[in-house]
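Worked example

This section walks through a single chain of length 283. The input is the sequence exactly as stored; nothing has been trimmed or padded.
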Amino acid sequence: MARWDRILSLDRFKIARFEVRPVLPPLEMDPAMTFSVNVLSHEPKHHITRMNRISGRASLIVALALLFAPNYSIAQDQSNAVANGGVFVKGWTGQVDAAEAASGAKIDGSRFMQMEGVMHAVTGPSVSYWQENQKADGSYTVMAKFTEPKFKNLSGHPHPYGLFIGGNDLGTDKSSMLYCMAYGSGKFIVRGFGPESFKLSGDRSTENAAINIAKEDGASVSQEIAITVSADAVSCSINRTVVGTYPKADVVGAGKLKSTNGAFGVRFGHNVEATVSGFHMMK
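Given that input, the structure is written out below as tokens.
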């Protein structure tokens, strides 16, 4: 919200200073950051004309519009709970991310169901789903095909979907997992919870030529995703191309996975719709 800080009148300058504090914290900026704009007129105060005043007001309106634009986009990125949410695939359960839960999000803020032979997810909060009686150990590969039927239909920008492995203590505040997820914009991330978030593929999503890109907003786009655990490494493949391989020493340990053995399943970012087919694990 805008707050007038002070107005100073000098013989040759009229300076108006105001501060704008973001309603929501910017995605990659210090939430405490204060934006300041100075509107400066070089005319003596007694020579300011009606045109000067009109021009100054117009400049102020433009400045305010530019300052508030980031807040609008951030508000658009809030998780929007869906109607009639819950887990409706037999034998499956799920949990929302800890950060979402801390903001009051519930598992029924997203919807996961079986539809025409495929699993179909529509998310509000970011969420992970898994089969309660299925675990993997040793060396194995988990794979599935994900299809976003209408790219960005629930948000103004891309959100990811993919697989996770090494799930332990799921459903508690000590849960751990490693996930690989793709975006319909041609990027991917490999990250995990241990239970705090840790990143393997970098601080930001990474482009890779193997990842399919939606032709336009509202178009369908699909990705075949696989996570392979071997004796000494974990790798992620998208559309049959390895996009990242990580030594187990970087994956398992304090603040990371308890083990690569554990539950495996599917995972979706917030405000995204996708279907899952061909989900399976093989040794």
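What to look for: The two ends are 56 Å apart (CA to CA).
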